[in-house]
């Protein structure tokens, strides 16, 4: 998909010891500012168009994505 990042954040999280490899592939990415949150049951999060985001489930569940223009 054209709107999918090439940065593999899951791999970066699981292999922090390979920092030099990630820094070479995506210079400065690990120094980028970010916001982190945990949603509870019944909560939702609006992510504006064009905002890069990464979602990870802390346990089994269901998520829904809806793209519109």
TrEMBL record:
InterPro entries: Cupin_8, JmjC_dom, RmlC-like_jellyroll
Domain of life according to the entry: Eukaryota
SUPFAM superfamilies according to UniProt: Clavaminate synthase-like
Pfam family, one: Cupin_8
Coiled-coil intervals, chain numbering: none
Domain JmjC, first and last residues per copy: 1-69
Protein name: JmjC domain-containing protein
Organism: Penicillium bovifimosum
